[in-house]
Recover the amino acids of this structure.
């Protein structure tokens, strides 16, 4: 593939590519697939053929969008684009030298941050006053905080696998309304959140599935067992398989747990869409309706705390 061919791929209209990926573009905007988005935070600049999410900071061109959305490397993304748009590439695609290797997530650089939790005043305010999260939940989730060189306070959220190994880190900006709201270290694999809770499941238990970590903390604080998925569009094949191994319906139940799955979908279209998507993987998933004045479980939890 030569420079000329690569340019042909880069020049494919980005909104068309996004739609081909399954994103719904309206007036140069769409729901960002790279974070839990409900307000069409991703916008397209047609003149530059680029995308940018003002919440999570994801940005780039046509090839970046495909790489990130489909989890492909540079060459695979180019092949996908070429196939989808009938662009004929020469065979020597392997000689391509533009590939920037993505470094895998280096857990050893982050583990020590979570050994002893430090919560800044901003983090304590956010967790305990704004969200009324139970301190035991904060300890269980090993939440900690830090302040970057610009003085911006961040909440640092570790992702562990079921065996307790650190697999990813998510940073949440604690300045209200600031962007980007989330940041991920390079290579961090933020798939299903709070997997260690699976080790505590007993027959007859209810397992709640939430969208995003903060609803998960509210459910845990309300005394439930819960895991979170980062966003519907980030649910990978691997995550789906993991959920299926937990399924205790007659067809599933490899763990033979006998527990049931529950969800309070967010009161909006993406929330309901996520429920339907999860129900395909977990046919026994139980739908719980939030009251009309609560947009998500965190809202509902605060209301319960007030009443
Ligand atoms: Zn985003």
């Amino acid at each position: 593939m030569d420079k000329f061919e690569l340019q042909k791929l880069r020049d494919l209209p980005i909104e068309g590519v996004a739609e081909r990926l399954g994103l719904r573009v309206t007036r140069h905007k769409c729901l960002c697939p790279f974070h839990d988005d409900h307000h069409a935070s991703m916008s397209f600049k047609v003149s530059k053929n680029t995308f940018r999410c003002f919440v999570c900071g994801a940005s780039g061109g046509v090839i970046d969008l495909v790489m990130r959305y489909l989890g492909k490397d540079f060459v695979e993304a180019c092949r996908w684009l070429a196939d989808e748009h009938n662009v004929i590439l020469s065979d020597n695609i392997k000689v391509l030298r533009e590939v920037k290797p993505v470094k895998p997530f280096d857990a050893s650089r982050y583990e020590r941050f979570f050994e002893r939790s430090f919560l800044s005043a901003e983090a304590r305010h956010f967790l305990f006053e704004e969200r009324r999260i139970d301190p035991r939940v904060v300890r269980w989730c090993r939440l900690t905080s830090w302040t970057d060189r610009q003085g911006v306070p961040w909440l640092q959220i570790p992702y562990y696998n079921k065996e307790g190994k650190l697999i990813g880190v998510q940073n949440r900006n604690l300045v209200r309304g600031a962007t980007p709201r989330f940041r991920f270290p390079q290579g961090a694999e933020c798939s299903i959140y709070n997997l260690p809770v699976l080790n505590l499941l007993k027959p007859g238990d209810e397992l709640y599935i939430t969208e995003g970590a903060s609803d998960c903390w509210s459910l845990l604080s309300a005394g439930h067992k819960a895991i979170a998925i980062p966003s519907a569009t980030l649910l990978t094949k691997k995550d789906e398989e993991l959920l299926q191994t937990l399924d205790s319906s007659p067809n599933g139940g490899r763990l033979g747990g006998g527990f049931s799955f529950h969800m309070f979908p967010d009161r909006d279209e993406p929330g309901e869409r996520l429920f339907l998507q999860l129900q395909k993987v977990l046919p026994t998933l139980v739908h719980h309706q939030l009251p009309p004045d609560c947009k998500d479980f965190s809202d509902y939890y605060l209301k319960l705390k007030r009443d």
In short: Confidence is low (pLDDT under 50) at residues 94-100, 249-256. The two ends are 64 Å apart (CA to CA). Residues 32, 34-35, 37, 41-42, 53, 55-56, 58 surround zinc ion (CB under 6 Å).
